[in-house]
Design a protein that fits this description.
The chain has about 325 residues and is an alpha/beta fold. Helices cover about 30% and strands about 30% of the residues.
C-alpha cells in the first residue's frame, strides 16, 4: 500500500512516498481503506522534531504521521461488533499515540470511530476529526459551556476555531471570535456575535467578563485572555509552551487556566457525526490535495494562512 514516512525530523523534504505492507489487525481494530485524511498544525510540529516526535520515534525506525481519517471498512477484527465490512467511518486514530494515517490503509481501534453521515463527503468527515473533537472536548467535556454564557474563541477562522464557533452557538453561548480583518465575514458567518481584529484591536478594549476563552495561540495571548475572563471563569489553551510562572499568575487571580490535549474517543465522534448530519456544524475546507502532494499540503499549513482545514484524498 502507499504510505508517507518520516525517517528523521526536519522539513517537508523528509517526507517520502513509499510502499509498505497493509497493517495486521489487532482483535479490537478495523482496517480502513482510506478515502480522505486531514492534517493539522500538530503534524507540522511533530515532523519538525517537536510536539509528539520523541514519543513516536521510540522503537520506530520511521514514523507515519497523521491521525484524521475517513474511509470504508475493509476488514474487522474478531472482537469488533459495532461495525462491519463496507461501513463508512471516520475518526481521529490513536491520538496522541501513533495514528499512522498517512497511508492507503489504516488499522484503527473501533472505539475511536463513528459512522460517517451519508449526507457528508469523506473530505468533510476527515476534516471534522482532531479539530472538531478538540473544540468539543474543550467546551463540553472540560469547560461545560452553558446556554447564555459569554465565550471568546481565538483564531476563530482556523481549524479548531471554526468548529468551536459553531459548537458554541449550538450550545447557546454568546460568541466573540478573533481573526484578521480578511476573515471577519467568515467568522461572522459561522455564527459569531462579535468579531475582534487581533491586529488592530486590544482584547481588553472589546470585551470583559467572558465565562470561557478557548486560546489556540497560547503563550502570545494567554495573559490577555485571562485579563478578559471573569473571576471563576476558565481559559483553556491548546499549544504547549506557557510557563508555570504565567499559569500561577493567572490562577492566583481566580481564573482557571490550563492546557488540554485532545483524546481519541468514539463516543465524542458520534456527537460530531450527529452535528454534521443535522447541518449544525459544517467543515470549511480550504484546499484539497491528492495524497501524493503531502509536501505541498504541509507547506500550506506552515504558512499560517489557512482558513479552515486542509484535506488530502486517494
Amino acid at each position: 500500500m502507499k504510505a508517507i514516512l518520516l525517517q528523521t525530523a526536519g522539513g517537508s523534504e523528509n517526507l517520502y512516498l513509499t510502499d509498505i505492507p497493509v497493517p495486521v489487525l489487532l482483535p479490537d481494530e478495523v482496517l480502513i481503506k482510506v478515502k480522505a485524511i486531514s492534517i493539522n498544525p500538530v503534524d507540522i510540529k511533530t515532523k519538525m522534531g517537536k510536539s509528539l516526535y520523541d514519543d513516536l520515534k521510540t522503537n520506530n525506525a520511521s514514523i507515519i504521521l497523521g491521525w484524521d481519517v475517513s474511509g470504508i471498512i475493509a476488514e474487522t477484527g474478531p472482537s469488533v461488533t459495532q461495525f462491519k465490512k463496507g461501513d463508512e467511518v471516520f475518526g481521529m486514530i490513536n491520538f496522541p499515540g501513533h495514528g499512522k494515517a498517512y497511508a492507503e490503509y489504516v488499522a484503527a481501534p473501533a472505539t475511536h470511530l463513528a459512522l460517517k453521515p451519508l449526507r457528508i463527503s469523506h473530505e468533510e468527515a476527515a476534516a471534522a476529526t482532531l479539530a472538531a473533537l478538540t473544540a468539543w472536548q474543550a467546551m463540553v467535556t472540560h469547560a461545560k459551556v452553558q446556554k447564555g454564557q459569554k465565550i471568546l474563541i481565538h483564531a476563530a477562522a482556523g481549524g479548531v476555531g471554526h468548529y468551536a464557533v459553531q459548537i458554541a452557538r449550538h450550545l447557546g453561548a454568546w460568541v466573540a471570535g478573533t481573526s484578521s480583518a480578511a476573515n471577519k465575514d467568515f467568522v461572522l458567518s459561522l455564527g459569531a456575535h462579535l468579531h475582534i481584529n487581533y491586529v488592530t484591536q486590544r482584547l481588553e478594549d472589546e470585551g470583559q467578563d467572558f465565562d470561557f476563552v478557548l486560546d489556540a495561540l497560547g503563550d502570545a495571548t494567554i495573559l490577555s485572555s485571562a485579563a478578559v475572563t471573569r473571576k471563576g471563569g476558565t481559559v483553556i489553551f491548546l499549544p504547549a509552551g506557557v510557563s508555570e510562572e504565567k499559569l500561577k499568575k493567572i490562577n492566583d487571580t481566580g481564573v482557571h487556566c490550563y492546557r488540554i490535549l485532545v483524546q481519541s474517543e468514539g463516543n465524542d465522534m458520534k456527537q460530531i457525526a450527529d452535528l454534521l448530519d443535522k447541518g449544525i456544524i459544517k467543515s470549511q475546507i480550504f484546499r484539497v490535495y491528492p495524497f501524493e502532494k503531502m509536501k505541498e499540503a504541509h507547506e500550506q499549513i506552515s504558512s499560517g494562512r489557512t482558513v479552515g482545514k486542509i484535506v488530502l484524498t486517494f
